[in-house]
Input
Amino acid sequence: MAFTPIRLVSPDGVSVLVGNATDRETLLGRGYTPEPAPKPAPAREPERRPAPKPVDTKTK
Output
């Protein structure tokens, strides 16, 4: 079974990359917590352009 490395944060605020399940469980028992997931980037709004002017179809 493969283990995906995760980041844990110590009670002092130090971030640690944990490479195996044994270390993860040991550090969790010592008060480390999983690092919060990064906030997603805000969605970009589409570029707003002025509406094109209507074409005058009337002939004089």
Summary: The helical segments are 21-29. The chain has a mean pLDDT of 88.
